[in-house]
Every structure is written in C-alpha cells, then in structure tokens.
Amino acid sequence: MKKILAVIKPFKVDEVKDALSKININGMTISEVKGFGRQKGHKEVYRGAEYQTDFVPKVELKICVDDDQADTVVDTIIETAKTGKIGDGKIFIMPVEDVVRIRTRETGVEAL
C-alpha cells in the first residue's frame, strides 16, 4: 500500500476530488495548510497597502491506496491540479505498512 500526500492550490480541490472519484478513489483526508517553496510567499494588497505574506495557503490531500493504484492516482492529481505556474504543489509517495479499520478490525487493502 502507498500513502499519497499531495499539496495543491486550494481552488483545485473540488476538481481533483471529482477526478479521483471518477477513478474510484472515494476516501481521502483534506487539510488546509500554509507553506512556501521556491516562490518564498507572495505580496498582497489590503485596503491599498501592500504587504508580504511569507506563507501561501495550500490544501493537503492524504490518500492511501493499493500499490497498483498509486501511479494512476498520482497521474490524475498531476493532470487535474497542474496550472503550469509556480506554486502548483508537490506529491509525496510513501509506503504504508498496514492499515486497520477501527469499526470492523479489517486490515490491509480491505480496510481502505
């Protein structure tokens, strides 16, 4: 199993969720996060005053899938979340040793 952690632009969340649903990925955890990469934040204007924001708002998706689904999920996120501009985000892929569904005690892929 793999855990896919994707950090994307907030306005792409619904589009990514819908695209993942079309490939039968129906479970994910979503968190609002802030951070920066190469862009080092951005400037905003509020009531005529310009100020520097060091952290850019992003959304973090966490999805666990069977090994054979991981590439398809990653490709779907890339195709859907990509704008071609700086700050599109990152995807991290990590191995998952096991998962347990609390309600039924199912383990492994059956628990996903």
Output the keywords.
Alpha-Beta Plaits, single chain, two-stranded antiparallel sheet, alpha+beta, 37% strand, four-stranded antiparallel β-sheet, 6 strands, 2 helices, 112 residues
* H and E string: EHEEEEHE
Q: Using only CA atoms, what is the Rg?
A: 17 Å
Q: Per CATH, what is the topology?
A: Alpha-Beta Plaits
Q: Tally the helices.
A: 2
Please state the average pLDDT score: 91
The global form is: elongated
Which spans of ≥5 residues are poorly predicted at pLDDT below 50?
none
Judging by the overall fold, what is the CATH architecture?
Answer: 2-Layer Sandwich
Largest sheet: 4 strands, antiparallel
**How many structural domains does the protein architecture include?**
1
Task: Output the structural class.
Answer: alpha+beta
CATH class, anyone?
Alpha Beta
* Counted beta strands: 6
How far is the first residue's CA from the last residue's CA? 10 Å
Strand content: 35-45%
Write out the strand line-up for the largest beta sheet, numbering strands in chain order.
2-5-1-6
Give the helix level as a range of percent: 10-25%
Give a brief rundown of this model.
This protein has one domain (2-111): Alpha-Beta Plaits (2-Layer Sandwich), CATH 3.30.70.120. Helices cover 22% and strands 37% of the residues. The chain contains two helices and six strands; from the N terminus they run βαββββαβ.
